[in-house]
Amino acid sequence: MSKDTTTAVPGTGDALENLSTESRKFAPSAEFAANAIVKASEYADAEADRPAFWGRQAREMLTWSKDFTKTLDWTNPPFATWFEDGEINAAYNALDRHVEAGNGDRVAIYFEGEPGDTRTYTYAQLTEEVKKAANAFEALGLVKGDRVAVYLPMIPEAVITLLACARIGAVHSVVFGGFSAEALRSRIDDAQAKLVVTADGTFRRGKPSSLKPAVDEALSAAGHTVENVVVVKRNGQDVDWVQGRDLWWADTVGAASAEHTAVGHAAEHPLFILYTSGTTGKPKGILHTTGGYLTQTAYTHKAVFDLHPETDVYWCTADVGWVTGHSYVTYAPLINGATQVIYEGTPDSPHQGRFWEIVQKYKVSILYTAPTAIRTFMKWGEDIPAKYDLSSIRLLGSVGEPINPEAWMWYRRVIGGNNAPIVDTWWQTETGAIMIAPLPGVTSTKPGSAQVPMPGIAVDVVDELGASVAHGHGGYLVIREPWPAMLRGIWGDNERYKDTYWARFDDMYFAGDGAKWDEDGDVWLLGRVDDVMNVSGHRLSTTEIESALVSHPSVAEAAVVGAADETTGQAVVAFVILRGSAVEDPDIVATLRNHVGHEIGPIAKPKTILVVPELPKTRSGKIMRRLLKDVAEGRDAGDSSTLADNTVMNQIAESLRA
Ligand code: 6R9
């Protein structure tokens, strides 16, 4: 490994040629437009005075325990504050206030477990559960500002835990259940968590799959800060138990009082940390605070999904381990009083129609999922969804990676009955909430484009020097003005925050994505321009996987690239140089894949590992990943004239032929 600076210049290449020819447009039906909550005038209202616009949303969408007098403070960039002197409780906004308003009997969550077990929570019941969890956590000694690591499957207890933390001002840090003990350990250590909330395990494709053993392994070494582990019984498997440290959820939360009064926390009080891959090895703890985050997530959820809480049934398929499962499962839908579906399992369990069976069963009207899932459904065939009644669907959303026009058209025709608007939503862990998306009752949608910045959001596409590019041209996606849900920093590392996002262009947030304006002024996202891969919508760092590979004694050097993949968008392809006798080991590829799985998690396992004699490097020693990507994608390697040794590519080709 060694960092590659030879990134492709966005706005060139085949993908862009295809995009430029896209001329199909779909206007919302007259009926949809007439009933839409947010109208076209919102853009001008917001444009007139952005901070004032967000101030209006903050008061309209949320209940503050203490009103604010200030909106944005940007006197110390890149550190923003929003609604700074206001006080608010996130859990009160998501729960209690709906009960107080007489909506306690409305369903908040329809839970569908993978094995087919179900649970329904009304707003009154969910409020009670969160109050119990808040009491239980406080009884364990948790106080405002303490960090809680959450390592749970997609079950209601995940939402309950997050809201209970928010209620008492504890800061949650969710670690995706697919990450390894090692990844969990480093995140627990970085955030200095005091409590871990986990489960014995979950179900994956009909089989029990465990979680608690990874927590035990992560906490096996001395020196960590964790005092207790609360364990939800989910799949009933046997677990090891550390007396005095481990507690069953049923014995703690289950036994706690259901009386708990929420107090307001400062608008800038930390709400959560969520780790995401960056261009260097160490994951970044993205920090979000309360008032601005809640304002923008709630507003965008209402505006982009046209949420009518009395009649809609909303289903976002994201896991709570990702930001989408925070913003658009845990917070925004509940703040907006929505009825939502939560599903624990995979789309093909026990059969490939499971998603459509769920849509039919709960009469889902708004479905929010990822392109990688849509492409998988396409592969399985349209006769599968055709077996179910999908007529309840009136709006479709997409998130996580660029959606190719073919998948977009399939989604519209097969799932959306040729009628439901599709909202392609661009945003990031760092942005906290949706930044670019159509407004479904206003925008004529285009297959493959996220199209327009949200009202109140200032997006631009700039060239290498930071100058705006003209319509019809590509460059780097930037955000010109601070926004309410923006990250407030990287946990414990202000310098890295400045360097990563604000150093590339003066006074502008650099997102790390390439983008293009088309002739109509719509935005097209072109993928990452840095060393971050996007596999099934999950961000993985090339450097992090390379570090994992070279940490194995058999590996001398490694280079990782994201190669285009029909289903997952990108797939991890690793090139490795082996040490000594490892070359003769017939199982080395499997060994290395498992090693990466152990170091980072199963999702990071390379799809392909190619053993090569050399890696292509520039004279300054930088690996030319561009050339390796050509190999991985089956093309002739491009210009290799800057290589220190230009026979290397031939050696690689030879070794792969052998
Ligand atoms: C919400 C989320 C962020 C990265 C982002 C970009 C890609 C997300 C996209 C999209 C094109 C979309 N991305 N949504 N690319 N069109 N609609 O996914 O957050 O996990 O932090 O990933 O995902 O590359 O920079 P996160």
From TrEMBL:
It is an enzyme of class 6 (ligase). Residues 544-622 form the AMP-binding enzyme C-terminal domain. CoA binds at residues 204-207, 324, 536. Residues 42-94 form the Acetyl-coenzyme A synthetase N-terminal domain. Belongs to the ATP-dependent AMP-binding enzyme family. It holds the Pfam family AMP-binding_C. GO terms for biological process: acetyl-CoA biosynthetic process from acetate. Its cofactor is Mg(2+). Residues 101-491 form the AMP-dependent synthetase/ligase domain. Residues 1-20 are annotated as: Disordered. GO terms for molecular function: acetate-CoA ligase activity; AMP binding; ATP binding; metal ion binding. It comes from Arthrobacter alpinus. This is Acetyl-coenzyme A synthetase. PANTHER family: ACETYL-COENZYME A SYNTHETASE (PTHR24095), ACETYL-COENZYME A SYNTHETASE 1 (PTHR24095:SF14). ATP binds at residues 400-402, 424-429, 513, 528, 539. GO terms for cellular component: cytosol. Acetylated. Deacetylation by the SIR2-homolog deacetylase activates the enzyme.
